[in-house]
Amino acid sequence: MGYRQDDNCGCEGTMAEEGVEIIQPAPVRVQVPCCIPFSEDHSFETCQDAFDFTYGVSGPETEIRLNCQVRVFKARVALTNVCPGRRINLAVIAGINRPGLPFIGMKGATFTVPGNVGDPCIPTLFIDEFCFVVPEDICQEEAITVKILAHYSDFVRENLVSQTSGFPI
User: According to the lineage, what is the superkingdom (predicted)?
Assistant: First the structure.
């Protein structure tokens, strides 16, 4: 009896004990134009032991550019009046303030605030670094918008949680 697996990646196959080959999808390759597409041929003449030439100054056709320049943006977050011993979900969303490139990326973390439930609130809790790559020409000015989303992700007091459903009352 045959077995067919058709999950989200499109893999197909049959059970190994039937001796049928498992078919994997073909690898996908993405071309990123980060190599400098400049080359120029030169030849040494007989008995010439040195060659001196400056590349990239002959005109636009020989211009050598730095491809794939990026900026790295680091975001640190300070949360105010945080309850110790609680879990927090935190997201940092970054975007460029220019039409056509509104979204850079989103990073997030779930963590437990140091301390014990019932301890005094922590006045300022610093969360280090969420890093983003801004793939743009570093020779132009760029404005970035950052949005922070944070909330507690659990209830710690037993009297706030229903004993039957597990959801807050």
Answer: Bacteria
